[in-house]
Amino acid sequence: MRRSGRPRSPVIFNAFERMVALRYLRARRQEGFVSVIAIFSLLGIALGVATLIIVMAVMNGFRTDLIGRILGLNGHLAVYGEGPSLTDFETLAATVRRVPGVVSATPLVEGQVMATTPSGAAGALVRGISPTDLRQRALIAEHIVAGSLDDFGDDGVLVGDRLARRLGVTVGGAVTVISPEGTATAFGTMPRVKTYQVVGLFDVGYYEYDNSFIYVPLDAAQLFFRLPDAVSYLEVFVGSADQSTREARLIAAALGGHVRILDWQRANSGIVNVVEIERNVMFLILTLIIVVAAFNIISSMIMMVKDKGRDIAILRTMGASRAAILRIFMLSGASIGVVGTLVGFVLGIVITRNLEAIREFLQNMLHVELFSAEFYFFTRIPARIDSGEVAAVVFMALALSFLATLYPSWRAARLDPVEALRYE
Fold first, then answer.
1. What is the rounded distance in angstroms from the CA atom of residue 2 to the CA atom of residue 351?
2. pLDDT tens per residue across span 230-257
3. DSSP 8-state code for residue 94
């Protein structure tokens, strides 16, 4: 007569193995050195995981904010004419706007100048743009820190907040711009000079822009740079930055190929590539912390196996199989890695979410600027947690911790009870 019933599901670690494994982690006084190594191994994995999560979040945030600010002001594509300027730009802009995938096409006049005030002078980049187009530029319109966009027009200009500080000018003040391209006269070449009234200050959080940009109405910029019926280029925004190359081909075909098109990836390839390389290198370097902690697990487990040789022999004589001994020591070593990984995960997430508050606290306590916008381009530490990367870090730490237990556990399982008890 057959017995019916559901088969029992196998258990990887039974209650006896869990009890012995956890008991071995609580070393006695004479075995305290082994416990100290295990604690340092746990801390090493925790710090490695936390550091990796924090640094990767900062690198992701830096890259995202950097590209966001670059694209927020510079557009995805720049359409240049065959010569130094682009004529018939209104017709060309209308044609570009009809290309599938194009969101906007904005005529711009751009040129390097020297900006001066009674308080100082600095190099600047003048951008001529129509008031309507500037109001639609969210990165500028939403970051006006003084003045108003309503007064932008005629001779009223917007100045980057940090540039205004360098020049010592505020809203209502005047700034004089000098073009390096002078005007030929009977007395020689005279520089072109024009004075504008500052009607607003903007701060987009990107040092290079806030420290050098001056926005001038398009008509005034055309007059100053001697481009009455032309612009420097068309700035084009597309639906997806990653698909900008496809739209560039469509625009070139629509315009008959008589233009030069530069996409944002080529225009900013140096910055984007450097950030990506630094991100990959930092990941590899910080991974070594976890690898070193895994080697500490190996050393502590080998010492534990040596100290527990008599206990292993007794367990074997009492009927414990080699597989049971293997699982006991694997559980002991893996517990260190699991706990360390979880501690590092929590620590990394908490610090990342409060990174800016921690920076401000340390700055106020140490009276030292820890994140200078002049060198790092941003006024705050950007951080963006990528759940996929965090999962990869946690999985890698757990995998390394598990692999670190294999050799010591195998040594424990291969221990001969007779040899271990011979001199006891």
1. 61
2. 898 888 888 877 778 888 888 888 888 7
3. H
Give the model confidence (pLDDT) of 132-160 as tens digits.
Answer: 888 888 888 888 888 888 888 888 899 99
Contact 218, 156 (CB under 8 A): no
Phi and psi at 294, nearest 5°, equal -65, -40
- Of 15-24, 42-51, 310-319, highest mean pLDDT: 42-51
Longest dimension (CA), the chain: 121
Q: What's CA 29's distance to the chain center, in Å?
A: 47
| Beta bridge partners of residue 190, listed in sequence order | 183
Can you tell me which residue has the tokens 């496809």? 246
Is residue 232 within 8 Å of 108, Cβ to Cβ?
Answer: yes
Concatenating the DSSP letter of every residue in 110-152 gives: EEEEEEEETTEEEEEEEEEE-HHHHHT-HHHHTTEEEE-GGG-
| CA atoms of 424 and 419, how far apart (whole Å) | 10
3-class secondary-structure state, position 74:
helix
DSSP for 213-244 reads EEEEEHHHHHHHTT-TTEESEEEEEES-GGGH
Tokens of 201: 């200050």
| Phi, psi for residue 27 in degrees, rounded to 5 | -70, 150
DSSP 314-352: HHHHTT--HHHHHHHHHHHHHHHHHHHHHHHHHHHHHHH
The residues, ordered by sequence, that sit 6+ positions from 172 with a Cβ below 8 Å of its Cβ are 197, 198
Q: pTM of the full predicted structure?
A: 0.64
Query: Which 8-state DSSP code applies to residue 27?
Result: -
How deeply is 32 buried, as exposed, middle or buried, from its count of CB atoms within 10 A (0-12, 13-18, 19+)?
exposed
Cβ(159)–Cβ(204) below 8 Å: no
Q: How far is residue 225's CA from residue 241's CA, in Å, rounded to a whole number? A: 31
Residue 375 CB-density burial (10 A; 0-12 exposed, 13-18 middle, 19+ buried): exposed
Cβ-contact 148, 200 below 8 angstroms: yes
**CA 131 to chain centroid:** 33
| Distant-in-sequence, close-in-space partners of 339: CB < 8 Å, separation ≥ 6 | 42
Measured between its terminal Cα atoms, the distance across the chain in Å is 52
Residue 368, Cβ density class (10 Å: 0-12 exposed, 13-18 middle, ≥19 buried): exposed
Provide the 10 A C-beta neighbour count for residue 98.
9
Name the phi and psi angles at 388, rounded to 5.
-65, -45
Measured from the Cβ of residue 388, the count of other Cβ atoms closer than 10 Å reads 7
Binning pLDDT at 50, 70 and 90, where does residue 6 land?
Answer: very low
